[in-house]
Amino acid sequence: MKKVVFLLLAFYSSRVQGERIEKIEQCGVHCSQGLRCKAKSHVSFGFCKKPPDSMSSDVFTNTSVSTVMRCDSSQRCSVHLRVSTVLQISEHIHGIYFCTFAAGLMERCRIVNFPKTQRAKLVDKQKVNIQDDCLEVGVGQDMHITLKTWPWFCDMDVFRLHHAPDCSNMDIRRSVTECITGRIHYEVDVERKELAVSVSEMLEDRDYHLRLCHKGFLCTGTGEHVLLKKENPLKNATLKYSRPVPCLCIEGWSVMTDAPRVQVCPFKHRVEELWSGIAFDPVTGTLSWEAACHINAVVSLCELHDGGMCEDLAHSHQTYVKGKVTYSAVDPHPRLCMKFKTEAGVWVKCPFSEGDFPVWYLEVKESQPQLLVTSRVRASLSVSTCSRTGSDMCENTHTSLVDVEKFKPVQPNLTMDLCQPGYCIKAKRADTEYGITILYCQLPCSLPFEYAGASTGWLECVVPLAAILAMAIVMATLVMAIAMTVYQFKSVSKALDNVSLPGVHTGSCSPMTGKSSLETELACKACLHVPCHSGSPQLRHGDKSNLLEGFTEHFEV
């Protein structure tokens, strides 16, 4: 497993850095078999001729093309092609052509020939290795290479296509003047909003420019610029920035004509910083956004719901490439947001989540309970009562258009009893193009709301409660009266069980002989405080009559 990972890393590194390029001090042509071949530039506008019948058509074999660098110093190298082939010698062939051609350029050729004295040493059909590395090419060019015999015989040409490495190749980036840009290193000081920059591997004999810019089709400067002198051994500078946007880059280049430039962007992953450029004009009600960087995005307005979902407003989508996105006639509200969609993801920003928003609201006046609409700006609102048909659906039952002056409360003309279950109030600005709808549900009917055209609704809630409370009080009073009467009767009965009235012929309380009645029993039980014993005097007839009358009146209640 470790070997596989190592091989993958090695392959990736080689792809990033590119092929290693051989460096040579001198270019030239080389031939095998001890031949001293010569080369020179050649321009030919002639035509090919028919080869002799005895000539083989495969005179070129093992042809290859590669890249080398010829260097005068470590930073003064040029790119060359090294073309190698094996040529089958015959008495009719005196040399070969190496020709190169690139788009937009004329064909350039070099002729390699064998002197007559050298050709005499060769045996017919002997093979000779020939190599030429003096074919200079541009960095990153696509080259067409053609090999021809000299003289030029038809149908014996060899064609090759070769792409010269560009400045992304590590060796070329460090050695070819037109690719040397210097390497930029930086450290970020977030609190001071500064970038500490240092440069290495720059051209040794040139001054060096450093600046901050916003990268787009061009890199537009921000104003921060420093020139590093070649005489100064320390190539350091401090650059200040205002916003850490992803297109803010450090750009550097050497002081020379058409110098290549290098750009390093410290905040390239801070995409969320682009969405902070939202502005609102409260006078015109215009909401706008302009990106500090070039970016492809789809912008829309949306209404933020519970749970974080933001529902797009109709007809609010705009495709952004550059410039400014503008929405006119916007009603500012904490739940009105802007949504940004890019290839990297989706972001939602709510510019009115902080500050004195919204500018209008509904309230209940406590001194004279009623629904009022108040606004800090002149506004026209659509206020409706609606019947709830689902979790998010509410069907309008009555709509009223309310014009509100600044800081002058207005009572909307609603005709629906809001205390009925399932009814809500829906409100929205009618004089703006973009705004959200506010839904007020589950209104507290225990509060004495009073609405125009529906002032009796709260009575229907309060009267049943008052009737139930009064009935409870009456029932409690009746139960208490019955309980008191029973308690008194039991107390009298318990006391008389231990008392007796003196009879006519006896000295104890006993049933009277002769005419016995309820009145006699009551009179006997009424002797609560009279000692009943054999020596107690008898009650007189008048006293007994008074006692009976008192108890009779007591139980006839």
Provide structural commentary:
The chain has 557 residues and is an alpha+beta fold. It has five domains: 16-173, Interleukin-17 receptor A/B, fibronectin-III-like domain 1 (Immunoglobulin-like, Sandwich); 180-264, Interleukin-17 receptor A/B, fibronectin-III-like domain 2 (Immunoglobulin-like); 277-349, Immunoglobulin-like, CATH 2.60.40; 360-455, Sandwich (Immunoglobulin-like); 467-555, no CATH class. Helices cover 16% and strands 36% of the residues. The chain contains six helices and 31 strands. The strands form eight sheets. A five-stranded mixed beta sheet has the order 1-4-5-8-2, with no helix packed on it. Strand 28 (379-388) and strand 29 form a beta hairpin. Helix 5 (518-525) crosses helix 6.
Identify the CATH architecture of the largest domain. Sandwich
The total number of structural domains is: 5
Largest sheet properties: 5 strands, mixed
How many β-strands, per DSSP?
A: 31
CATH topology of the largest domain: Immunoglobulin-like
Taking the alpha carbons of the first and last residues, their distance comes to 110 Å
Radius of gyration: 55 Å
What oligomeric state do the depicted chains represent? single chain
- Portion of residues in beta strands equals 35-45%
Overall pLDDT confidence: 79
CATH homology-level superfamily of the largest domain: Interleukin-17 receptor A/B, fibronectin-III-like domain 1
**Broad structural category:** alpha+beta
- What sort of overall outline do the alpha carbons produce when their principal axes are compared? elongated
- Please give the share of residues in helix: 10-25%
Return the CATH class of the largest domain.
Answer: Mainly Beta
Across the major sheet, the strand order is 1-4-5-8-2
> Are there runs of 5+ residues with pLDDT below 50, and where?
1-17, 446-462, 499-557
Helical run tally? 6
